[in-house]
Amino acid sequence: MRASAQDDRRLLCRVAKGDLEAFEQLYRNTSPWLAMRLRLRCSDDGLVAEVVQDTYLTVWRAAGSFAAMSPRGDAPGNGAAGWLWTIAARRLVDAQRKQGRRRERPAEVLPTLSVPAAEDDALAGTVGDELGTALARLAPELRAVLRAMVLDGHTVQETSVLLGIPEGTVKSRARRARNAMREALS
């Protein structure tokens, strides 16, 4: 059973004090969720495992910055999960950027399966039928750009690396998605 967000906050504050047992518990509580969310953005299991490991190494080293934001263990905003996801998402972009430098891009891009992300389901269920319907009608490549830029807060450059498309394509897809959403909601 998944621990509560409040428990994760408390564990992170204990990790900031060097508590190895709290770190191990935090890892057990959050790593399955984090790995699953990273797999929605990257199909390379080896790279996902590397990013998870790098994320928790960063958490061990930087938990003090989380604790400083949250002296009583009740961080503002998204709390522990949001903080962990921000670290992981940035590590994924960095790893993909590094991986892209190590090997040439294939001449032909293989098609990918489009699986609705948990964020899409949650967003569609909480923001109303009209917006949920408009999101569902967007082409998968437009939804992917919206998810990366709006829900995950990535820059155009980070989205480009994350999705493996040129920055100009990210910008044009974001514009097309905004226009499609505007039209669907008017």
Automatic annotation (TrEMBL):
Keyword terms of this UniProt record: Sigma factor, Transcription, Transcription regulation
Gene Ontology annotations of biological process type: DNA-templated transcription initiation
Cited Pfam families: Sigma70_r2 (PF04542), Sigma70_r4_2 (PF08281)
Domain of life: Bacteria
Domain RNA polymerase sigma factor 70 region 4 type: 130-181
Domain RNA polymerase sigma-70 region: 26-102
GO molecular function, one term: DNA binding
Family: Belongs to the sigma-70 factor family. ECF subfamily.
The name this protein goes by in its record: RNA polymerase sigma-70 factor, ECF subfamily
Organism of origin: Actinoplanes philippinensis
